[in-house]
């Protein structure tokens, strides 16, 4: 039997949520725990309650709706969800879509009184987008939070996360207790927009994610000597910027020799010192953002970057140092869940593409405690984090139908 979502209801809910926090410039501003995000939370809770799905907020303020029956209530839950907070000036899909699809799936299953072998939960994780650092809710959920994160997290205006939680009537340290033991979670499914151009370019409705990319961020400093741009001969300079330029040109070679198809290296932030037009730059600070789906490849990329920097520094008479600002491990999606997704797609006669995810998601955190899988839908022109972020309705419907049918399979009804 093939199940289908109530598309009109889904669309109505989608439009209601998309209106919350929308400003005159067309963008949505639901940054974690701001006034509009709190409205969106109330909206979601009211919706779940109105549809008869018992709902609670955990100690990290994740919103969790649960559908269970007497036979399955003591079993681990199959969880579906994402986040409803946004970046500033966001579109309507990133995060919200996954929660809305989760909501619609639970409603369909409840309406048709489908008795799954495992209870189902829909979840909206707190602060995925990073007003206070990112993935706060899913970190807490997966037991990856620590007191330091709670104490030190602040937004760009210097507002402390702990103060905000207190104002909301929550003891910040209690967030640690939102951690769910492995035995309570059977698996986690997340539907998300691709946030890249691949599905749109190939006109495929759904992607089935194989791996979620890992990421390391370095902050690098090349030190030379600042000197007069007119009197310092070219061969006598210690020009830090030339070192950076050499490194930038090494990136394609590093990826060819040490990377794979999913490897990405980006220099996105550069500061030159002293930064005046008539002075040879004596210092350059820059970021490296490098990603791959294999930990082994990530380590090779690190090695290759280090070697290239050290060779360049020697050649240009510079010194260099770097700090690793963050390291997120890559995650493989669960094979069995992936098979459920592929079987459901075939049954729905839907074309799909198995692909890696180049962006980080809550699923990556949840993977610490449970098997995960992800569905992608196309991002028009690959755009996200923008009011222009869009996915055609028929792709949204396909993605939601795939989620529904896969969820029922995963929850062990058939
Ligand atoms: Zn997202």
Automatic annotation (TrEMBL):
Give the UniProt keywords, A-Z. Hydrolase, Metal-binding, Zinc
Kindly give the SUPFAM superfamilies that the UniProt entry links to this protein: Bacterial exopeptidase dimerisation domain, Zn-dependent exopeptidases
Where, by residue number, does Zn(2+) 2 bind? 94, 129, 385
Q: Which CDD domains match?
A: M20_bAS (cd03884)
Entry's cofactor comment: Binds 2 Zn(2+) ions per subunit.
* Hydrolase recorded as keyword: yes
Q: Which cofactor does it need?
A: Zn(2+)
The record's annotation in InterPro entries points to: Amidase_Cbmase, Bact_exopeptidase_dim_dom, Peptidase_M20, Peptidase_M20_dimer
A GO molecular function assigned to this protein is: metal ion binding
Q: Where does Zn(2+) 1 bind?
A: 83, 94, 192
Q: Give residue ranges for domain Peptidase M20 dimerisation.
A: 214-314
What family does this belong to? Belongs to the peptidase M20 family.
Q: What is this protein called?
A: N-carbamoyl-L-amino-acid hydrolase
